[in-house]
Amino acid sequence: MKNYSRQREEIIKVIKNSYDHPTAEDIYMTVKAKDPAVSRSTVYRNLNLLVENKLINKIPMQIGADRFDYIRKPHNHAICIKCGKIFDFEYNFEYEEIKKIVREQTGIEISDKGIALDGICNSCKING
Questions:
Q1: What is the residue range of 26's domain?
Q2: Which of 23, 48, 93, 98 could form a disulfide with 65 if both were Cys (CB 3.0 to 4.6 A apart)?
């Protein structure tokens, strides 16, 4: 990205310092608390730019709002289908092999490195 933006830097900082994979609205509220003049559209527009420029990851959710993640190192996600909480985990999948299998079976070209697995977290299992 060519142009510096104080608000964009603040958005990156919020995501970088967050390990709970915040939603766009979470990010907006945190940035707004520090800069009351920032608009929701500015935050959302900048999130899209940051994703397009591969500075952050967007985690599409089946339930609820999409989440965002700062790219620190290669990792994967386990997502609770009941509460929507996202857990990071590391495992060295053979991405090229997975991409090849998916391409052969479906014709889809996988664009990302990263696996998202759905399940039910311990808290949801215990609390029913």
A1: 1-72
A2: 23
